[in-house]
TrEMBL record:
This is Phospho-N-acetylmuramoyl-pentapeptide-transferase. It catalyses: UDP-N-acetyl-alpha-D-muramoyl-L-alanyl-gamma-D-glutamyl-meso-2,6-diaminopimeloyl-D-alanyl-D-alanine + di-trans,octa-cis-undecaprenyl phosphate = di-trans,octa-cis-undecaprenyl diphospho-N-acetyl-alpha-D-muramoyl-L-alanyl-D-glutamyl-meso-2,6-diaminopimeloyl-D-alanyl-D-alanine + UMP. Pfam families: Glycos_transf_4 (PF00953), MraY_sig1 (PF10555). The keyword Cell division applies. Belongs to the glycosyltransferase 4 family. MraY subfamily. It comes from Micromonospora echinofusca.
């Protein structure tokens, strides 16, 4: 727990105090956010606000991970709390950094062209597929090699699983490695685009991401305390995952970094996360679902992202089939803007929806544990 707290604190402080530096740097570089002309009129006042702020909390998360590992060296029990970086960390941080890199290219092109077009759809889609495929393969083809005092393997696990999972792996839903990689690519695309579509109002995606990441930190730490690989855990009911403490540490660090960034990103935002931050967070959240074996629980934990994404899907299908729009504008948050709601009211109420999804998911996770130990 000490290492997780250290990581959260370091990430928060770096993000809180380095974001103003990023604001000044991006302002001097004239890296202002282009605003769509067809968007709500009130958004035109945000034109020129620095973007690509996701760079700050991505870097803060990586540095905090290192700090958390330094804290691990002070723990008395090194048998469980591994101090060496793991494949799990490579996958999770790699997903965040390289998904963020795809978003950075998009943001850079927007700033350079001085319009909201950025990277074309095919380029962004290719980037998401490539990142998902590379880290999906790493997650499924590199098993751990933890051994006990006698040298026998104690936890031969991969980061991902060849079985679909809800609160844990569902044994009846074996899909194989190739299909698992394909499914993970879909999860990466869904999560990155879900966060990106939510990132339309000051602080909305950041605050929702804090809740989702905090939930994964709790889930992973609970799995660590009831881990099948822990020789000190004697109960029959445990979680067969790989490196749950690593997962909790990274999730906590990312949540802390987002809280620090939210200080400057909340209304009126002085900086936007941009596609850099949105795609980076989406990639990390997808990795969290895979590594904690809760892939089918993700739509509930990230319920707000699902709702907003579905509003876009419904709008497109309705317009193309009937010529009519269901919403004044999509994504959903813009519908309520055009209906007269203030930006702050929309953000707070959508945060409440995000919190409800997280609470339901955590309730399902914990109730499953209680049902099996009682």
């Amino acid at each position: 727990m000490r290492a997780v707290i250290v990581a959260v604190g370091v990430a928060f402080l770096i993000s809180l105090f380095c974001t103003p530096i990023a604001i000044r740097v991006f302002t001097r570089l004239k890296a202002g956010q282009p605003i769509r002309a067809e968007g709500p009129a009130m958004h035109q006042g945000k034109k020129g606000t620095p973007t690509m702020g996701g760079v700050v909390f991505i870097i803060a998360t990586v540095i905090a991970y290192v700090a958390g590992h330094l804290a691990l060296t002070t723990l008395p029990d090194q048998q469980i709390a591994q101090v060496e970086p793991t494949i799990t960390a490579l996958v999770l941080l790699g997903l965040m950094v390289f998904s963020g890199a795809v978003g950075f290219i998009d943001d850079f092109l927007k700033v350079r062209k001085r319009n909201s077009a950025g990277l074309n759809k095919r380029g962004k889609l290719f980037g998401q597929i490539l990142v998902g495929a590379v880290f999906g393969v790493i997650a499924l083809y590199f098993p751990s090699s933890m051994v006990d005092a006698s040298g026998a393997a104690t936890n031969v696990e991969t980061v991902g699983s060849t079985t679909l999972s809800f609160i844990r792996d569902i044994d009846a839903l074996q899909v194989g490695k190739v299909a698992s990689v394909v499914i993970f690519i879909f999860v990466v695309m869904a999560a990155t685009n879900g966060v990106n579509l939510t990132d339309g109002l000051d602080g909305l995606a950041t605050g929702a991401s804090v809740m989702v990441l905090a939930a994964y930190a709790l889930i992973a730490f609970w799995q660590y305390r009831h881990w099948c690989a822990d020789p000190n855990y004697t109960e029959k009911y445990c979680y067969s995952v790989r490196d749950p403490l690593e997962i909790a540490l990274i999730a906590g660090a990312a949540a802390g970094a987002c809280v620090g960034f939210l200080w400057w990103n909340t209304s009126p935002a002085r900086i936007f996360m941009g596609d850099t931050g949105a795609l980076g967070l989406g990639g990390l959240i997808a990795g969290m679902a895979m590594s904690t074996r809760t892939v089918l629980l993700l739509p509930i934990i990230g319920g707000l992202f699902v709702i907003i994404t579905m509003s876009v899907v419904i709008q497109i299908i309705s317009f193309r089939t009937t010529g009519k729009r269901v919403f004044r504008m999509s994504p959903l948050q813009h519908h309520f803007e055009l209906a007269g709601w203030s930006e702050v009211n929309i953000v707070v109420r959508f945060w409440i929806i995000a919190g409800i999804g997280v609470a339901i998911a955590l309730g399902l996770f914990y109730s499953e544990f209680l049902a099996n130990v009682s």
